[in-house]
Amino acid sequence: MNIICNGTQLSEALSRVSKALPIKKTIPILEGIKLSAYGNFLTLTATDTEFAIQKTINADVRMEGEALVPGKLFGEFAKKLSSEESIEISYTDDQNVKVKYTDSETSFKAMKLRDYPPIQEFDHDVEFSMLQKDLKDLIIKTIFSAATDDVRPILKGCLLDISGNEVKCVALDGYRLAVTKKQLAMSCSDTSAIIPAKNLSEIYRLLEEDDEPANISVCQKKITVDLKHTKIISNLLSGTFIRYESSIPNKFETVVTVDRTMLENCLERAYIMSRFEKSNLVKMDVKEGKLTISTNSEMGDVNEVMSVFSQGKDIQMLFNSKFILDCLKVIDDEFVNFSFSTPTSPSIITPVEGDKFLYMVLPLRNFSR
Questions:
Q1: What pTM was estimated for this model as a whole?
Q2: Phi-psi domain of 299 (left: phi exceeds 0; alpha: psi -120 through 50; beta: other)
Q3: What percent of the chain is modeled with pLDDT above 70?
Q4: Residue 21 per-residue DSSP state
Q5: Structural domains present in the chain
Q6: What is the DSSP string of 75-103?
C-alpha cells in the first residue's frame, strides 16, 4: 500500500473512527485501526465487534492495499501532522507502516491484518432516510431517559420504532419515560430496533446540524447509519422492549400550561438546594393559578412561585427535580403542558399542541429524610 493524503483530513478521520475503539483493552487486535486504500480513497475502520465506524477520505492511491495500525498511537501522532498538506503512508512486507512528511519519516509496527474481524455486509429489512439534524434532535431528546444499570439490560437501549412515514424514539429507566417523534419524507415498511444507548450517543456525536441526509438501514441484528463519507454500524439489543404505552395515563385531574424557560429556571434554583437531600426532592404545589416549587435541606430552603394557567383540581406532588430538568432542557417549545392525576400517579409533559414529544415522570412517594 502506498498513498498520499492531506494531514487535516487524516487527523479528523482518525478522530472519528477512534470512537469505536474498545474502552477496555481485552482483545489486542481490536485496538487497531484498519487502513484500506482502493481507487481514489482511503477508508479507515475501527470496531469493538459490537460497534463500528468507517470514514472515507480522498487520497492519491499509488499502490492499493490494506494495513492495520495501532489505533490510539497512530491517531495521536496524526494530530501533530494536521497542518501538513501532504502525507505519504506506505506499507510493505517489512511489517512497518511508514509515514513521510516534509523531510521527515516515522514508522509504526503494523498489527496482523488477518486477525482483524471483517465488517460484514448484511441484507437490509428496512431502509429509510431522514435529515441528520432531525435524527440528532430525535436522539438528544430521548437518550437521557435510558437506563444505566444492568438490572434490566433491555432498558439500556433506545427503541427506534418506524411506522409508515413516522419514526419514534423511546427510552425509559423505570422512573421516567421519553418519547419523541419525527416525520419522514417517504413512508417505509414498519419495523423496530433497540439500539444500545452508548452506541446511539456516539452516532449523535457524528451527526451534523444540517440538511444532509442520514441513510438508515435496519436488519434483525444490526443498524447502519450512512452519512455519505462516514458509515456507522451498531449491533442491536435482542429481546422485547417494555410495553410502555399502557403505563401512560390518559386522564388527568390537573393540567398546567407553563412557560418552559421560567419553570426550568425555578427548578434549577431549587435543584441547587435539593441536591443535598435524598432523591433531589422538590415539592410542586398547584393552587389558584400559581405553581409553587419548594425544597428544604440542612443547607437552606427554596420557595419559588410562578403564575401558570391551570385547569382542574389543586394538587401537591413530590418529584426528583433532576428528572424534570432533564426533560425541560431538551424541549424547544416556549410553553408546555404539565399534567397530573394523583400525588402517586405518573405525570406527563407534552406540547401545548400536537404530540411530537411526551415525557413521563414518576413522583416520589412515602418520602422521608
A1: 0.91
A2: alpha
A3: 99
A4: S
A5: 2-115 (3.10.150.10), 126-245 (3.10.150.10), 248-361 (3.10.150.10)
A6: HHHHHTTTT-S-EEEEE-TTSEEEEEETT
